[in-house]
Each structure stands twice: as C-alpha cells, then as structure tokens.
From TrEMBL:
Belongs to the folate receptor family. GO terms for cellular component: external side of plasma membrane. Residues 1-33 form the signal peptide. It comes from the Eukaryota. This is Folate receptor alpha-like. Keywords: Disulfide bond, Signal. It comes from Phyllostomus discolor. It holds the Pfam family Folate_rec.
Length: 264
C-alpha cells in the first residue's frame, strides 16, 4: 500500500500557510536586526587614489598620520596631500594668492580625512564620474571642526563657492574663470555652515553635535586616544540598518495578511 500524507485543506491550509509565512517573517526580521550594517564599516571608497581595502600604513605623512593604524590611503598619497599642487588632482590651493598657513592646514586635513579614513561608509554614494565611482555625501562634520576651519580661513582669498566645478583648467591646474573675482573667504562663505556644506558639493553637512559626542565625524583627532570616528560610523550604520527594517516590515506583514485573506 503506498504511503500517503494527509494535507490540510480549506481554512486549515490557509492557516498553515499564513503561520509559516509569519514565522518566516519573524525569522527574517531577527536576522535583519542582528546585522550591524557591517558593509558600511571599515571600507574604502571606489575613487581615484583609494586603496581597495583599509590596512595599516606606518609611515603616513604628517597630518595624515592619525590614520596610520588603519588607512585607505597609501604613503605616497599622504605625501602628495601636503603639496600645493600635487599629482592627486592638480588642484591649486593658492588660486587667489597664498592661503594663510593656518587655513591651508584645514584643507590638508580635509584631504587626509577624505583619502585615508575607513569610517565614511554610511555616507558613501555611487556616482558616475570619470575620476571616481563613489563619493561621500552629507558627512556630519563636528561643529567645532567646521567653525575653526571657517575662522582660520576668513582672511584668505578665493573666487568660488563650490570648488568641485567651474574652474579654468587650460593651464593644467585650476584657475579662476574671468567672471569670478577673488574676495576674502567670508564673501563667498558668510557662515561656517556655508563653507563646510558647500565647498565640496555637500560632501559635509555641519553637525549640531560636538567633538567627543560619538555623533559627528572629527576631522582632527589624537590617534593616541584612538579613532573616535569608528564609534560614529558604527552608530550611523546601525541607525541606517534599523531604518531599513522599519521601512520593510509594514510591507512584509501586509503581504502576510493579504495571503491569509486570499487563502481563507
């Protein structure tokens, strides 16, 4: 006699399917919630000079040295970041005359953060540009770092608000277009937020949080005290992971209800 198994029918079958689906949703939710957003942590951008993966670089140059224990930049990149017109991007900081040394230090540190930090994953976005496939967008820069950048650069000169575009590159490095006159920084950037938010096409967004809060990225930090941006990246990665779960759960639970109603 062939062995047969009785299958549920009608309402029982609907209840069985709906129950199994709900159990699957609960399991999937638990798995999702357990994910720490690891794909956003300890990563390098797919950009012009970044390494594929972060790793130690014991000899990083001067202002890039805070990242020597774990860096997305090479030693050579860190050295070039300190030059006035380097091979990195052929960008001339002194396009309206020499920047004040205290001002230029912020731009070097900004370059080091961009090139070396493995803690910018939560803000990496894909782009279709000839020189990079990814960029950062709206990184929450600690308000003190932004304010000191603006304060130290107020009396230096520039000719543009957005330094990513609109330059005259005919000489091989950036020069001011004829229509853009040189003025002190405060003319183009009347507030700290104007400087930090606009100068690199909203790569940064000045934060209301302070240094040491664990909620904003520090451009400057003492490596002897550890890298505070690791905690910040982890916080935002977990927050983004939770937001994704919040968005997807209503749809999944709604699907379970619809299937239950259809089958009963």
């Amino acid at each position: 006699m062939p062995l047969t198994t009785a299958l549920p029918s009608g309402t029982n079958m609907a209840l069985t399917v709906a129950t199994q689906l709900l159990l699957l949703l609960v399991w999937g939710t638990a798995v999702w919630a357990a994910r720490p957003g690891a794909e956003l942590l300890n990563v390098c951008m797919d950009a012009k000079h970044h390494k594929e993966k972060p790793s130690p670089e014991d000899k990083l140059h001067e202002q890039c040295s805070p990242w020597k224990k774990n860096a997305c930049c090479s030693v050579n990149t860190s050295q070039e970041a300190h030059k006035d017109v380097s091979y990195l991007y052929r960008f001339n900081w002194d396009h309206c005359g020499p920047l004040e040394p205290v001002c230029k230090r912020h731009f070097i540190q900004d370059t080091c953060l961009y090139e070396c930090s493995p803690n910018l994953g939560p803000w990496i976005q894909q782009v279709n540009q000839s020189w990079r496939k990814e960029r950062i967008l709206n990184v929450p820069l600690c308000k003190e770092d932004c304010e000191s950048w603006w304060r130290d650069c107020r009396t230096s000169y520039t000719c543009k608000t957005n330094w990513h575009k609109g330059w005259n590159w005919t000489s091989g490095f950036n020069e001011c277009p004829v229509k853009d006159a040189c003025h002190p920084f405060y003319f183009y950037f009347p507030t700290p937020a104007a400087l930090c938010n606009e100068i690199w096409s909203h790569s940064y967004k000045v934060s209301n949080y302070s240094r040491g809060s664990g909620r904003c990225i520090q451009m400057w930090f003492d490596p002897a005290q550890g890298n505070p941006n690791e905690e910040v990246a982890r916080f935002y990665a977990e927050a983004m992971n939770g937001a994704g779960l919040h968005r997807v759960w209503p749809g999944l639970s709604g699907l379970a209800l619809i299937l239950f109603l259809v089958l009963t």
